[in-house]
Amino acid sequence: MTRCDAGKILITRHLAAPWEDPPGPVPSTYSPSAQFGTLEALGETQLIKAVRQNDLRTAQYLLEHRADPNEKDGFGETALMEAAAQGQPNLCKLLLESLANVGYRSPTKLRAQDLAADHVKHFFNMPQSYWHDRGLRLAARQHNLRRAALLLERAKQDKQEVDVNGADGNGFTPLHVCAARAPDSDESRLFTRWLLDEKATVNATNLLGETPLILATRASADAQKSLRLSIVKLLLKSRAAVNTSDSVLHETPLMEAAGIGDSELVLTLLRAGAESARCSASGQSALDFALNDEVKWMLKNPMQATSGSPWPSRQPNSRVPPPPPQPQPQPQQPQPGPRPPFPSFVPKQPGPKTLPKKPQTYSERLQSLLAKYPGFAGSGVEMPSHAWQWSHEELELFIGSMGQFWPPGRARPSMKPGPTAGAGAAGRGRDVWERPKPSLRPHYQVLGVADGTRDQQTLKRAYRQAALKWHPDKNPNDPHAAANFQKACNAFEQICKALGFNA
Questions:
Q1: CB of 83 closer than 8 Å to CB of 92
Q2: Residues 304-319: what's their mean pLDDT?
Q3: What is the mean pLDDT of the chain?
Q4: Which residue range or ranges hold the J domain (predicted)?
């Protein structure tokens, strides 16, 4: 038995979810000899008819119900030839992803690429394996086992293998694509199980270093409550690395789960060996991402949580009133007796003399504070000329606040005269010195989000998309890719810093 045969049998066993037909008179079964659809006049199949009418929805439905994309009409032409001649890009992609054969020729010896319009010719320059992998990823994105079964069957007919670990330009394998979609039915779990049984690499990483487990954990926030953990548990059962973090934000699945606030998901990851002490690129642990008290308690007490100890606040309160306090026996009064003798006075022996600690110079105090607050050097704030007179506490107040707070009682430099200032009084006007605030608009433009966006998840999502777009590994021939990638990193960091987030 070949690999394709085994996969076909396995999918047949997994096909349990009923198929819901869209409205319309289209039959639900297909046989080349049935009226499903050969028209006697032109020998035209329903699929070719749908392509000629540019009916993408009907064509997709027919292909999912086992319509043969390589069947010819009475003129010896296939549906792919018709779509290519009409220049329909969506239909061409659909047929190629359904493994339509590009090598078939019409009676005039022309192939689909010979008939193709100019704007769709590039589809036919791709190798057949590209469309095999793309078709499988499309089935994975839809959690469509029926489509995957047809792909295996047609690949067997063409004597070609379908690579379940084939990655696209962003490094997404079919398992990545499947895990990134929130499970909405039991077919999602069955499709994931089929991929794992077909030896899909469970710890494969995309360009951002994300594993299928990270994507499945993130997608669980949008899933139904009863199905949200189905893919996560399958991946963990297949020995998915629970402590692997992505290469951009360095966040683990446990941090994603803590940010969602799903206590059951957090407990599942902890029982699988997730480490709560790991930190992200910003130095945050999963506890810093936690949204509710129960998740915080689990992360603070992982041993108790995994052993089945209940969350303290969940314990039922006792309605039985406490018993009244028992009377305590009165202690016996001590009998008066002779007073103890007064202890003799022992003078304290003087210790060794120590010299007073030498005070730090202004330069030493300044260097120690700059080392403690390294961000001050790049903030653009200058030290006042008379700061050498300040105490250590006053210097730390100014440097630690990045110049926003001035030591009380110390004169500030005047930038312009006040309303009553005249000649000779320019230096006595009202102080209007303020720390310059950099504009965030260029950083928002780099990430492609609206100016003033403050939602951290929206910013993270835009950062991931920008990092995928400009990743140097994805754009080896673009000399500006590395600079744009770094620009996206800097923009995300500056926005998070200005909004008080930890990037």
A1: yes
A2: 68
A3: 78
A4: 442-503
Q: Are 269 and 275 in contact (CB under 8 A)?
A: no
Which letter does DSSP use for residue 340 in this model? Answer: P
What pLDDT score does 300 carry? 92
- Residue closest to 471 by CA, chosen among 483, 462, 459: 483
Q: Which two tokens stand for residue 451?
A: 């100016």
CA–CA separation, 325 and 348 (whole Å):
49
Q: Which of 370, 436, 427 lies closest to 404 in space, CA to CA? A: 436
Q: 235 with 192: CB under 8 angstroms?
A: yes
pTM of the complete model: 0.61
DSSP 21-74: PPSSS--S---TTSTTT-BTTTTB-HHHHHHHTT-HHHHHHHHHTT--TT---T
Q: What is the DSSP letter of 221?
A: G
Q: What is the pLDDT of residues 256-310, one digit of tens each?
A: 999 999 999 999 999 999 999 999 888 889 999 898 899 999 999 989 888 877 7
Half-sphere exposure of 450 (CA within 13 A, CB side): 5
Confidence (pLDDT) at 365: 79
DSSP state of 279: B
Burial 64-88 (b: 16+ CB within 10 A, else e): bbebbbbebbeeebbbbbbbbbbeb
What's the one-letter identity of residue 103? G
Give me the half-sphere count of Cα atoms (radius 13 Å) on the Cβ side of residue 282. Answer: 18
Please tell me the distance from the alpha carbon of residue 146 to that of residue 99, in angstroms, as a whole number: 14
**% of the chain at pLDDT higher than 90:** 25
- For residues 177 and 381, give the distance between their C-alpha atoms in angstroms, rounded to a whole number: 48
> For the chain, how big is the Rg over CA atoms in Å?
35
Rounded Cα distance, 235 and 192, in Å: 8
Determine the straight-line distance between the first and last CA of the chain, rounded to whole angstroms.
52
